[in-house]
Design brief:
Structural class: mainly alpha
Number of strands: 2
Order of helices and strands: EEHHH
Radius of gyration: 14 Å
Distance between the termini: 34 Å
Number of domains: 1
């Protein structure tokens, strides 16, 4: 059975992550308060960030940018889509 948490992003009791995504305080906070569903939303958002901003993930600056956006997306105002991003029609 999955570990249940009160998701800080979605405001509901949902299954938590099975692992700590980062080996730091942010990773611990995510593990304790973010659901698998909210984490998957972040993963999809981060893909857009990497592609639209053409982030080079071999560079520390790109990782720092992604972590800042991750914190904003999960705990803040929701992060921001890249300025040129146009959602695919549904």
């Amino acid at each position: 059975m999955s570990r249940m948490i009160r998701c800080a992003k979605l405001g509901a009791d949902l299954p938590g992550l099975p692992y700590q995504p980062f080996a730091d305080a942010l990773g611990q906070r995510i593990f304790e308060t973010i659901s698998q569903q909210a984490w998957q939303q972040w993963i999809e958002h981060s893909k857009r960030m990497v592609n639209e901003y053409r982030l080079d993930l071999t560079q520390k600056k790109s990782h720092d940018t992604l972590k800042e956006q991750c914190e904003q997306f999960l705990f803040g105002a929701g992060g921001s889509a890249p300025p040129e991003y146009v959602p695919e029609p549904s």
